[in-house]
Amino acid sequence: MVSDFRPISCCNVLYKVITKIIVQRLRLVLDAMISPSQNAFVPGRSIGDNILLAQEMFTGYNRQGLPKRCALKIDLRKAYDTVEWDFLIAALQMFGFPDIFIGWIEECVYSYVLGVH
């Protein structure tokens, strides 16, 4: 099924340079904005920490004398494929990013074209 595959992108050099500049500038402010509980995709943190945390939380989960509880696991299928670009732009505006910076991101996400042959 086509939806089971992710396309390989061959970006031009200018696109790669601009996105690297954007990432470097974002790194200057992201540490103050990212929650301490966010472990995936953050340098120095590991998604494995969440597994250890979950194991620790469930130790003794069924002990007698404690209130009844319920656990729920949610897995968002292909979460990165469902990002609404308008929402991303609105979030950047809400966090007070400069208009010129938001414009660069808009150019990257709205003008990028992928093809599958």
TrEMBL record:
Annotated InterPro entries: DNA/RNA_pol_sf, RT_dom
One Pfam family it belongs to: RVT_1
CDD domains in alphabetical order: RT_nLTR_like
Spans through the membrane: none
Coiled-coil annotated spans: none
Sequence ranges assigned to domain Reverse transcriptase in this UniProt record: 3-109
Source superkingdom: Eukaryota
The protein's name: Reverse transcriptase domain-containing protein
Species assigned in the record: Sesamum angustifolium
